[in-house]
Design a protein that fits this description.
Structural class: alpha+beta
Shape: globular
Strand content: 5-15%
Largest sheet: 4 strands, mixed
Distance between the termini: 42 Å
Helix content: 40-55%
Number of strands: 4
């Protein structure tokens, strides 16, 4: 049994990126964060993204030391990376995000549309969300372009370089959100695009 657990930890450590070490995380915590584990409509990479986000929400300080810092150490230091360190160290015990089919379908539809059109941004967000806005107590959307890997996408949105109001970071760490839908699709201009939809409790 121990060998099986160690194998799972090793595979996850290798797959999320060079330098990230999850040996400090209990297996039970990694499993707890893996709320999308048995969801059939998500890809392995989309599931991994949800698990990483949940780890940040469970223990931001540990996430920073074991996952974020090794990533940031390979990037250029900025006020955004420094502020992320400060913010994550204060995050503890936020509600886990559970995968939600309605939010996934909204994310997937938009990721496919933007991928085909070559556009970026939150085009017609209010109009797109109107059919589901009364189903959740609050909604938010994150978009990222140019990357397919879960770790890179999560870290880019958490660092939120160039976004003075840190809107992407705030959505990921918002304690009012309990549901998430994610979709990674090809993009005609940026190779890849990822859409994350967040939702509060269902009404």
């Amino acid at each position: 049994m121990t060998k099986v657990i160690l194998s799972i930890l090793l595979l996850f450590t290798i797959s999320i990126g060079n330098g990230q070490d999850l040996s400090a995380w209990d297996y039970q915590v990694l499993e707890k964060a893996n709320t999308a584990k048995n969801v059939g409509y998500l890809t392995a990479n989309e599931k991994k993204m949800i698990q990483l986000i949940n780890l940040a929400r469970i223990d931001g300080a540990k996430f920073y030391e074991t996952i974020a810092k090794p990533y940031i150490d390979t990037a250029t230091s900025s006020s955004y990376t420094r502020s992320l360190a400060s913010v994550l160290k204060k995050v503890k015990g936020l509600p886990l995000l559970s995968p939600d089919k309605i939010l996934f379908e909204a994310a997937q539809k938009y990721a496919i549309s933007m991928g085909k059109s070559g556009k970026i941004g939150h085009d017609k967000y209010a109009q797109r969300m109107k059919p589901i806005q009364n189903k959740y107590k609050g909604l938010s959307e994150n978009c990222d372009y140019g990357f397919e890997g879960a770790l890179t996408i999560v870290m880019r949105l958490l660092i939120d370089e160039g976004n003075p109001d840190y809107g992407h970071r705030k959505a990921i760490l918002d304690p009012n959100f309990v549901f998430i839908g994610v979709s990674i699709k090809r993009h005609t201009k940026w190779d890849w695009n990822c859409v994350q939809e967040f939702g509060g409790v269902k009404l």
